[in-house]
Amino acid sequence: MLRKYAILLGAVMALAWSSTYANPEDDRMAFEKYFTTKFPEVPLNDFQNGIYSVDPVARADWEQIEEFPPYELAIDAGEAEYNKPFANGKSYSDCFGDGAVRGQYPYWDSERKEVITMELAINECRTSNGEEPLRWNKGKIAELSAYMSYISRGQTVDVKIPEDDPEALAAYERGKQFYYTKRGQLNFSCFDCHGTGAGKGVRLEKLSPALGHTTHWPVYRSKWGAVGTLHRRFGGCNRQVRAKNFKSQGQEYRELEYFLTYMSNGHELNGPGARR
Amino acid sequence: MIKKTLMALSLATAMVLGSFGGGVAFADEEAVNHGKSVAFNRQKGNCLSCHMMDDGDQPGSQGPPLIAMKLRFPDREDLRARIYNPLEFNPNTIMPPFGLHNILSDEEIDAIVEYLYTL
């Protein structure tokens, strides 16, 4: 009798545990299923094309734009910058080898206890070699990022959350919390627009689905007339819902990138991208 | 048979019109116009970003079309509350709480309700 109770108690506790602490892989599968159910006609490997996976009219325009991609100049500028030696004679290749490293970011640094993004690593490469850091959102850093993403095309998103470090999981959880929290005067969470509202119109502009959202950054946005980084877009999204944006490459956005990129694990990197 | 169906249809139409057409006549025309301008203003209600309504250009499709509003929301206070704080009715809605977050003033929400009752 006692044994029976013990088993029952064990089962209840296991249930409680599993429902309180969903693991990231469960999250990712649920996330993927949400979008594949919502857009059954879209092949899984097409979500990397963002809004164009679900908006055939915009896609036709975009395919034309991709014949002479507006981000080409940025790739060239980024390549020149990548190969330019620092004042100390070293260069980016001393930090990143051939530079095709987009697939390694973002990652959890167990010693520093923080998420490292590629843009953060670019600036740390500079400062450790005695160079001034670049501004985070646009210009040189976006060009370097465009070049490095371009030569990383075809790699697979494979963000890892080290199981032996609970602080990595905590960072992921904070990113997830950020993603689903309603904020700003207009009270939108990231998921409100890019999950619930995905594929539906705000005026005539359709909202992009979140699955595959991080694969194609940095992006040349016609609205910007230049390439910009993912964190620049995060800031713009936050301001659009009338919230105060967080600092680019601050803890909040890096952990958001950690969560959001994990959600696209298995998808192909195809940056830089072109968007309206 | 066709004649009978037509008659039934026109009778039904008349009944529907009768049931919510009356509001227009009694509504304060000035408030209705004000409500429409607040509803269409991108810095104010910006309802068109998500709802098809009236003669508004380029409506979005996040929310349902705003038609037959008096029929669907016969209780004016209920309709008003749904604009003031829609989360009270559906915690997962993506519609902003226009009153609770001071996006619109009480007076502006009243004017919008007035206008919606003409749709």
Explain what you see:
The complex is a heterodimer of chains A (276) and B (119). With 276 residues, chain A is mostly helical. Chain A has 2 domains: 23-70 and 162-275, Cytochrome Bc1 Complex, Chain D, domain 2 (Orthogonal Bundle), CATH 1.10.760; 72-150, Cytochrome c-like domain (Cytochrome Bc1 Complex, Chain D, domain 2, Orthogonal Bundle), CATH 1.10.760. Chain A is built from 11 helices and 7 strands. Chain A has helices spanning 2-20, 24-38, 56-65, 72-83, 93-96, 118-128, 140-150, 166-180, 190-196, 230-240, 251-263; strands at residues 107-109, 114-116, 201-202, 205-206, 219-221, 226-228, 273-275. In chain A, helix 4 (72-83) crosses helix 7, helix 6 (118-128) packs across helix 7 and helix 8 packs across helix 11. Chain B has a single domain (23-116), classed as Cytochrome Bc1 Complex, Chain D, domain 2 (Orthogonal Bundle). The longest helix of chain B is centred in the first third of the chain and has 25 residues, at 2-26. Chain B is globular. The N and C termini of chain B lie far apart (33 Å). Mean pLDDT of chain B is 86; it is low at 11-25.
Largest sheet of chain B: none
Number of structurally distinct domains of chain B: 1
Helical stretch tally of chain A: 11
Give the strand content of chain A: 5-15%
* CATH C-level category of the largest domain in chain A: Mainly Alpha
Largest interface summary: A-B, 13 and 16 residues
Let me know the number of strands of chain B.
0
Corresponding CATH superfamily of chain B = Cytochrome c-like domain
- Secondary-structure element order of chain B, N to C: HHHHH
Which strand order does the major sheet of chain A show? 6-5-7
Determine the mean pLDDT of chain B: 86
The class by helix and strand makeup of chain A works out as: mainly alpha
Could you please say which CATH topology of the largest domain in chain A applies here? Cytochrome Bc1 Complex, Chain D, domain 2
How many discrete structural domains of chain A? 2
| Assigned CATH architecture of the largest domain in chain A | Orthogonal Bundle
Main beta sheet strand tally, sense and closure of chain A: 3 strands, mixed
Briefly note the CATH topology name of chain B.
Cytochrome Bc1 Complex, Chain D, domain 2
